[in-house]
Amino acid sequence: MKKIQEVYGAPQGHWVGNGFPVRSLLSYDRMGAQHISPFLLLDHAGPYSFEPASQPRGVGQHPHRGFETVTLVYAGELEHRDSSGGGGRIAEGDVQWMTAGAGIVHEEFHSEALTAQGGRMEMAQIWVNLPARFKNVSPAYQTLHQADIPSVPLENEAGVVRVVAGDYLGEKGPAHTFTPLNMWDIRLSMGKEAGLHVPEGHTTLLVVLEGTVLVNGETLVRDESVVAFERKGEEVSLEANNNAKLILLSGEPIDEPVVGYGPFVMNSEEEIRQAFSELQGGPVRCPASLAALPLGQVSATSRLPYSANEEELHRDWRNDIEGFGGLLASHLPAYSNLMQSYSQQATT
User: Rounded distance, CA 211 to CA 215, Å?
Assistant: First the structure.
């Protein structure tokens, strides 16, 4: 049995852009990168009901580098495009897996239908670290539709495990990963018990999005909480007091330094400086604006409706760097001085 190491309660919520009210249930600045590696962050967005609107809500163009973002959709629709030419629309049950690698610029908005009609939105976004040898891989995008993700019934009709990545009882998830990891989207029925086999040595994190779960027969965990387990052992026991929605993350730890600020996660401060330099006019790996991309490089389904303020949406990243740093300062405050230094350089 994997022993419980710590239970993290629900943090205060905040907005990302104007389309995602989130709680950062998992974050490496709060919990320590060495304790949750290879994972960095998990934001639970919603559930939230939006009124109809004339302009799409979401997050405009912003860069990422050195890791991957994984978005699981529970309700609503999301439209996305990025500087690699990837993008599209994902809806309930779908997963978007984006590899930022050497650098990518992307934007995420509510779909045209969700914008026009309004409705319920709920998603979870997970940041997965890349080891140093893969931090400069070419950006890539995986669209994992609900039909592509295998569902494995739990014994005694206790629920179901959707295998997004890794392996569960021989069923392999469709996501390509750079290091060994499991990402299981779990539903556990009220009053039912389930035992899950997790690899020895893996960092193991149980995220309770909804419901109340008795873990290992000893600890009652409520919604919007995370259970961190010791790496020793292979079994986790769950019992649901009511219908529960869970994510189980397990992965082989990456034994490397983690240095990050805002949209960049690298291995050293020098690499962070390099990332900013490349966005500020150095050897740019990713364009400052998606508007610079020929439309032929972006599939029709991934073209997003722009906000009312196109000038703001398309402005050069050099003029937006300070504002975006503020948006994510709650995640990664440790390098605020570094960000301030580069913000000052950007205005000179």
Answer: 12
Mean pLDDT of the chain: 83
Tell whether omega for the bond before 21 is within 30 degrees of 0, i.e. cis.
no
Which spans in the chain are helix H? 28-31, 33-36, 112-117, 269-279, 310-313, 317-327, 336-346
Two structure tokens written together for 263: 């949209």
pLDDT average, residue stretch 282-298: 35
Neighbours of 338 (CB within 10 A): 17
| Structure tokens, 87 | 């993008």
CA distance 303 to 326: 27
pLDDT confidence tier of residue 208, bands split at 50, 70 and 90:
very high
Inter-residue contact 302 to 87 (CB < 8 Å): yes
Phi, psi dihedral angles at 4 (to 5 degrees): -70, 130
Joined tokens for residue 124: 């979870």
Distance CA 50, CA 312 (A): 23
Q: For strands 235-240 and 259-261, give the pairing.
A: unpaired
**Angle at CA of residue 30, ends 25 and 36, nearest 5°:** 75
CA distance 80 to 260: 24
Cα separation of 252 and 329, whole Å? Answer: 28
**What is the predicted pLDDT for the residue at 91?**
97
Q: Look at the chain and count its residues.
A: 348
Main-chain dihedrals φ then ψ at residue 325, nearest 5 degrees? -60, -40
